[in-house]
Amino acid sequence: MEEQNMESSSSSCFDGYSEHSRSIIHIDIDCFYAQVEMIRNPELRSVPVGVQQKNIVVTSNYEARKFGIQKCMLVTDAVKACPNLKLVNGEDLQPYRIASNKIFTLLQTWKCPVEKLGMDENFIDVTNLVQERVKMVDSKSVTVAGHAYKVASVECICGCHTRLKLASQLASEMRSKIFNELGFTTCAGVAHNKLLAKLICPLHKPNDQSLIFPEHACSFMSTLPSVRCIPSIGAKTSEALMSLNIHSVSDLQQVAPEILQKPFSGDMAVRLKKLSFGEDNTPLKQTGRPLSIGLEDSFKTVSVKSEVEERFSALLQRLIVLVREDGRIPVSLRVTLRKKDAKRLSSHRESRQCQISPSIFTISNGSLNVPEAGQSKLMSTVMRLFNKLVDLTKPFHLTLVGLAFTKFQDRMTGRGSMVNYLMNDISVQSVLNLTNDCDTSGCSMDYSAASPSSSTTTDLSDAEVEPSPKKPKKVNWIAKRRCLSKEDVASPSKLRVGELRLNSRELEKVSELRLNSRDRSLTPRASPARECLSDASDSMKDIAEGSNCDSCPGYVDQEVFSALPGDMQQELKAMWKNPSSSEVPRSSPRTNKAKSNTILKYFLPNK
Ligand code: DCP
Ligand code: MG
Ligand code: MG
Fold first, then answer.
1. How many structural domains is the chain composed of?
2. Per-residue pLDDT tens over the stretch 440-455
3. Do 179 and 49 share a structural domain?
4. Among 167, 440, 443, 562, which residue is least crowded by beta carbons within 10 Å?
């Protein structure tokens, strides 16, 4: 139906045909870095301020914009245009990150999906909240908060006008809260999709908001001077469009679909056409926590190891601040270098990463810390990875060094999670981590440019409110798993100290083994940690034998199994029922990397 419309009306709008059930808000902070600086130093409020990174003014306050200062202007040009410009160094992004996270956290208090886009933008899908409010109001009395792109014509039969007006009121509430609690002025856009919400947002800048009704989408889009104004159209697509003599959004609206199908796939052609009319059904991708936390330092050339070490050391100090703020325990560290090839006049990136021991980090009063010993361990790991990336017997030229924590321990997890059920404190976390390490040791040595996508991020808020349901069962479980007596475990202080010592020693040995080894064979290696785990499995067997669980394998402890939440029991039973997809092979249970992360690893069969 839509495609027919497109065919028959390639030069006209689809108003009324697209679906308008959603209510989306886009919020952008005014002159973000400059506002952070003005909040830190209120004396800056009354003067023109530019935020400088290297020789560029990345942004400026609105006072400075009156003098024609634009984003990414050269400092020399900016000072010429505004001799009184007060320049503030903005190379440390940390204060901006902190402010950005605070705004994101505040927006989450409305309990609607929030998608963070860059540092100073957020989409909020208020569809459900608006639907609740619609029931409580007389639609005729609802008014627009802020501006409307055009006055509403005849009320759309789907009721979107009232919903969008209510969404504009929510946007106003959000902006007020951001201002009252954090001190930032913002702009907001309200529409039935993300594309229009983002594009309408800057219509009344700064410190104001705009709404667009669906029937005005087409005419609004036709005012955009370049196809590059559409966020999903990048340099390559716009080049291809320009080769078809399509420059403005209006050109794109008018072009016949078959012409677009020459350079683009059919789907892409349809999508481009829809975007030009302001149609976009992209859902919000709720922002979780980042998969990796990293920093890079670029420079002209570094060719001496000691200088590399200094730069890594400085990066590490800053990275530790970031990871402390994040609160998750990293278990993998990646080193990145950009190497300059003098002969080819080119450069390329290379990375290596390895697992790191969680015992490097400590938790006190709920905060993550890296004691000095841990910092030097991290630094020596960094330099070991560096040594693997660079042949020091030959000259080298680097133009960038980077460090990133790429995987994190499941310190806190959502409802029903095995990890959440079993652990509440750091010592128990380490038990599981050790287990995981050993499970995959044969195949988890250093590897280059590994994708961080395998990292798992977890829902912090969920875990914080969920208590561990059955402590006595947990104690039993740990005792069996780690060859400890129940008495040892029952004393929390004994467990904590004993377990942590054990973990740090064992993990050091495991990571030493990995770092020192050049053998990449997948054959599992014997290690003290592995031996201990084997013992643990044996001890589990001893206790679990005689279990009368009907559908569970014999090595499973009935008592532990019955203490698991129902959904987890179902999950396990399903996996045991279908051994082809999930059974841990008896011959080499820990070499099956693909399966190493299934819930079954907590129920290891015997050797
Ligand atoms: N930024 C940057 N480099 C750029 C563009 C922006 O470092 N090329 C930084 C500085 C900005 C921040 O990102 O403060 C947010 O970018 P915006 O485009 O939203 O610009 P501002 O928030 O500064 O200004 P506006 O009031 O126009 O939103
Ligand atoms: Mg902004
Ligand atoms: Mg922005």
1. 4
2. 222 222 212 222 222 2
3. yes
4. 562
